[in-house]
Write a structure and sequence with these properties.
It is built from 29 helices and 36 strands. It is α/β, with parallel strands linked by helices. The strands form ten sheets. Strands 14-13-26-25-24-15-16 form a seven-stranded mixed sheet, with helices on both faces. The chain has a six-stranded mixed beta barrel with strand order 29-33-30-32-31-36.
Length: 881
């Protein structure tokens, strides 16, 4: 129980936690003290002097944004002296503020406007030399108008304290102070939009929505971002069937008002002119021609029915993107299993997240995190492994930074990145113990962590007593391993010892581990690590795998993979099958389903005759060596449901126009398992329809109607068949470890693949200089979708091969030079840029522009989880031309 302090504010009593600021205590009783520089996310600065209040027995007015409450404190916020101070501050500001409200984009939502109407007298005695700053297009996305700046420094402090980018700073002095980027260059930063959102006036505004609207002219829809798995709440502001702007609000959602570049500036794909607006049908001459829904739906029903009768239901497969809503995913798997009668289905969660799901279910009996974002903030020690967190999951990155910078958590990092000061934040710069490893060495490093527990005698005595075989056999397997060459063994032991000594510790796992060969075994070994510490079931401890796409967790939980039924229950679970049969009035097919690569191979061999692909693009997502295009061309019937005419859609017999997340309602499930609302902000573009609605319409035509009136009706059914979805809300409790599953694993299940999990893979000996190439996310893009957003393309319009500056210098390569990248699969020529955080011998390329390197990649399936590993490759590099 927190210590409470009793305070009286304008005759209103309140008890607040010790350490609360007066301005925040006043807010809780509904009293808004005017201010410019204060923000709940930022440390007190008290520079604007707008928030002065009277405190009984204190002779002078005090800044409420920097004064902490005390027992018995009496505060007055609305006295003549206080109001006069407000007027004086505003007179100082307005003496030099331009009267350009009619053309300022902040007009109608400006703090200075509001306070001026409330407090400013009709005349002023202050005279000041008028400052005049030239308006700057600070970057392609942000406009800077320093004549409007009130010098509150919110933007600078947000950039420093929250983002840790330090891209902004005040320069000059006195009334000539202005906010600038370093060395007067155009702004080069993370483009999170934080400076635009936190500015109380119109000093920073978005160029994407400049001069487009006033606040009262737009419609608003509170929804959830459709990019990464962080699950950020945002507000779509729309006008005349166009998304004009995206905003977020402090106190709202899992992001608490923060956004990244993708969330804030990446909305324009919704209204892209290349959106598919009508169904397309391939004609005898090979062209795709527009058609009506009345023509297409009977055609689809007829072709699917014919194929079922001729070849059987198992000749049809389905694939869906994890960017769809839970409702879309649920109806899709139900359509495939009941209407088509096939278990051949998969989703883009297959590209890595299923490694985490398989491991979590095996060891702790739940497919979800047993921790939450709040546990990140409350942790004493945070261990990050292979996250690239600033690029891939920036808002979770903000949580980690807050835990370290504000709450004193100790950050331990096992990342490919190294210490480097750049224009975007680098999480390892905050690390107290950092172990740099290659992109291909994370699984090996995890084995080294487990070995370090035994070396340092850190194994929990109770675990050793209750499950001696687990401890003894794991000890034997782990300690037999040689220290990983090229990895600091002493550093591994230091990280293990520090983490073991924490009161609360949390492991955050990213795509560098989950999408690399051995990802499944490495995830199980990480859970071994927590089990050996005796912490897996302890409150506040856990393993938190991050997801790349926004609803990968939902895709698994809706049953949109071959191995899982809704609720992420295994296909062979008789009790769940019985419950579903009772709810659906029909038994679920029992034949084992094929996964992504298996379906591609079956299409190539002629065993699979048709595929229904919703929002996924295997021709592009898989490397050229997978020959997905050739396989899909052999199908008798290919249906693709999409926003754009992708590489896969161009091969389809029928293309169906789908809605984006901005045009439909439903729910997304974020990485931590929180289910959040998606609300429609626009009417469907053209003749597009929500994915579930299209599937339902086809089912009716096929004689097995999956009829739903709207998305809430589907959610009602989801909640009836999936226990974890019966309790929804802003703050549901995290999942709990299933002790029976854990004890089964400890009692003997661990031994099933122990030798494989603790075996060092033989490295092929190669002559010449080979580099490890990794395809991964960058901060400004996520998949191909973001390349359809004009704002994001303004920041980064092409993919470049990033290498360490030392490597570039040694090879005589300058930024912008062309290099030839060669592997066993093929070769490609791309431009180069230097990046200080990339270690020597490593290469990094944005997967959003992966077409440039598709020829050099190979694909290998995980023998357990079926994840198609294709984002790591050994290559040679030479200067081209």
């Amino acid at each position: 129980m927190a210590d409470l302090v009793n305070v009286l504010i304008d005759e209103k009593p309140i008890a607040v936690e010790k350490g609360t600021l007066v301005i925040e205590a006043a807010r809780r009783v509904g009293i808004m003290i005017p201010n410019f520089c204060h923000h709940p996310k930022l440390s007190p600065d008290a520079n604007c002097r707008m928030c002065l209040v009277e405190i009984e027995k204190v002779p002078k007015l005090q800044t409420s944004c920097s004064t902490v409450v005390a027992e018995g404190m009496v505060v007055r916020t609305n006295t003549p002296e206080v109001n006069n101070s407000h007027k004086s501050v505003l007179e100082f500001i307005l003496a030099n503020h331009p009267l350009d409200c009619p053309i300022c984009d902040q007009g109608g939502r400006c703090d200075l406007q509001d306070f001026s109407h409330q407090y400013t007298p009709t005349q002023s005695d202050f005279i000041d030399v008028k400052r005049v700053f030239k308006k700057e297009y600070f970057s392609p996305l942000i406009e800077k108008e320093m004549n409007r700046c009130v010098q509150c420094l919110r933007c600078v402090r947000y950039c420093d304290e929250v983002v840790d980018a330090k891209a902004l700073a005040p320069i000059n002095r006195g009334t000539m102070t202005e906010i600038s980027h370093f060395a007067s260059h155009p702004l080069d930063c993370e483009f999170c939009g934080g400076c635009v959102q936190i500015c109380p006036v119109g000093a920073f505004t978005s160029r994407l929505s400049g001069y487009e609207f006033r606040p009262w002219m737009v419609k608003r829809a509170d929804t959830t971002c459709g990019y990464c798995g962080d699950g950020c709440a945002l507000t779509l502001q729309t006008r005349e069937q166009q998304v004009i702007e995206v905003m977020s609000a402090y106190g709202e959602g899992r992001n608490n008002g923060d956004l990244c570049a993708r969330g804030f500036f990446g909305f324009q794909f919704v209204n892209h002119p290349d959106r598919i607006k009508t169904p397309l049908v391939r004609q005898p001459d090979g062209r795709l021609q527009p058609a009506t829904w009345e023509e297409v739906l009977p055609l689809l029903a007829e072709r699917f029915t014919q194929l079922k009768l001729t070849h059987g239901a198992d000749a049809i497969g389905g694939l869906i993107t994890a960017r769809c809503t839970n409702e879309d995913l649920y109806v899709f798997q139900k359509f495939m299993r009941l209407v088509i009668g096939s278990n051949h289905l998969d989703s883009s969660a297959r590209y890595g997240h299923v490694n985490a799901v398989e491991a979590l279910r095996r060891v702790q009996g739940t497919n979800r995190w047993t921790v939450s974002y709040e546990d990140i903030l409350q942790s004493d020690s945070l261990l990050l492994i292979g996250t690239q967190i600033t690029f891939a999951n920036p808002i979770v990155g903000f949580k980690v930074k807050e835990a370290v910078k504000k709450h004193g958590a100790q950050l331990l990092t096992i990342e490919t990145g190294q210490y480097s000061i750049e224009t975007t934040s680098n999480i390892v710069n905050l690390s107290s113990l950092h172990l740099p490893v290659g992109f291909d060495r994370h699984a090996e490093t995890v084995r080294g962590l487990v070995k370090a527990l035994f070396t340092e005698n850190l194994v929990d005595a109770e675990i050793a007593s209750k499950f001696p075989a687990f401890v003894a056999r794991t000890r034997s397997a782990a300690t037999a391993l040689p220290d990983p060459g090229g990895i600091d063994a002493a550093g591994l032991r230091a990280i293990a010892k520090t983490f073991a000594g924490a009161k609360r510790g949390l492991i955050i796992v990213g795509q560098d581990l989950l999408q690399a060969p051995g990802g499944y075994h490495a995830m199980v070994n990480l859970l071994d690590f927590l089990l050996l510490l005796g912490k897996l079931t302890t409150h506040g401890w856990g393993v938190a795998p991050l997801t790349e796409e926004n609803n990968e967790q939902g895709a698994v939980e809706m049953g949109a993979t071959a191995a899982y039924l809704p609720g992420a229950a295994p296909m062979q679970d008789a009790s769940v099958r019985g419950q579903l049969a009772a709810a659906w009035k029909e038994a679920v097919p029992t034949a084992p389903g094929m996964r992504l690569l298996e379906m591609i191979e079956a299409a190539r061999s002629g065993r699979l005759k048709a595929m229904y692909i919703v929002g996924e693009n295997p021709v592009r997502s898989l490397p050229a060596s997978a020959t997905a295009a050739e396989a899909l061309k052999k199908l008798e019937f290919l249906v693709v449901q999409e926003l754009f005419l992708t590489e896969t859609a161009q091969l389809a017999d029928v293309v169906l126009p789908a809605c984006s997340y901005a045009e439909k309602s439903g729910t997304f499930t974020n990485s931590e398992g929180f289910v959040q609302k998606v609300r429609r902000g626009l009417d469907p573009i053209g003749d597009s329809r929500p994915d579930w609605e299209i599937l339902a319409a086809i089912s009716v035509m096929m004689g097995y109607p999956l009829e739903y009136g709207d998305a809430p009706e589907i959610l009602k059914e989801i909640r009836a068949v999936i226990p974890g979805y019966r309790v929804l809300g802003a703050m549901p409790e995290p999942a709990q470890v299933d002790t029976q599953s854990m004890e089964r694993y400890l009692a003997g299940g661990f031994a099933d693949d122990l030798a494989d999990r603790y075996r060092v893979a033989a490295r092929a000996k190669q002559s010449g200089e080979f580099w490890t190439l990794r395809l991964g996310q960058v901060l400004f893009h996520s998949g191909k979708l973001s390349t359809m957003a004009k704002g994001l393309m303004e920041i980064q319009k092409e993919g470049r091969l990033y290498m360490n500056p030392g490597d570039a210098k040694r090879l005589g390569i300058a930024a912008g030079d062309m290099v030839r990248v060669t592997s066993e699969a093929g070769e490609a020529t791309v431009q180069v840029s230097s990046m200080g955080r990339i270690p020597e011998g490593m290469l990094y390329f944005p997967e959003s522009f992966r077409e440039a390197l598709a020829a050099v990649l190979t694909v290998t399936p995980d023998p357990v989880s079926g994840v198609p590993y294709h984002k790591l490759q050994q290559v040679t590099v030479s200067k081209a031309g």
